[in-house]
Amino acid sequence: MSDANFIHDQQYLTVGEGEAAREIAYIARSQSGQASGPTLVWLSGYRSDMSGSKAIELDRFAAENGLACLRLDYSGHGLSGGKFTDGTISRWLEEALAVILHTAPDRILVVGSSMGGWIALRLAQELAKRQDGPKLEGMVLIAPAPDFTTDLIEPNLTKKEKASLADRGYFEERSAYSPEPNIYTRALMEDGRDNSVLKGIIETGCPVHILQGMKDPDVPYQHAMKLVEHLPADDVVLTFVRDGDHRLSRPQDIERILAAVKGLIR
Asked: N or C: which end of the chain has fewer CB within 10 A?
């Protein structure tokens, strides 16, 4: 297959009103041929976007199997409008939910990477409250980082970072993946507490497959084990990749991810 098959025009959806309005970019691949399966929904991680290698490979897999696929950029990411520093879990969740409801698939299988795993779990909770959303048929979580603000960032804050949060409303840290530093705002941290999922039972109502690298410097593999304890009602598979890092984007990692997706398509 040539890459020409994977070139799409992004579309835009306005989410929020007044000063909170932002243009959210998304790419929706239609189902083709006789294939019948859920729409694959890609949810990126913090500062990642829908043009990353795992997102592109998921779209390629959808194309080769005639499946619909939906990718979006959160506000402040990729092709979407809005300021990154205005971003919170609530805001990015609102955007993901708005794009899904706007494109109106009947059934979805969500693939969430890192922070996208947290948003996927919150999405499941929000969809469960609604009558008008799609049926959630499965979830593949790649190095999921639910509650990363309270569980992984706050306990490790330095005095200087705490002071910066208090005085400036944010702090910066060097990124291993970009020349630009990561920026964590006070709003993101406070909103993270409101969106905490690791405080009780999470009911997704669908099978879940978690893939986690054991050499992940950002999300320790113990965090994935903690998540499993909060999913007692679901059919959960946890795959550890012994030499895997946080990104899990090597060819062999992508193969594992796509195999997990394939395994959940009914």
From this structure: N
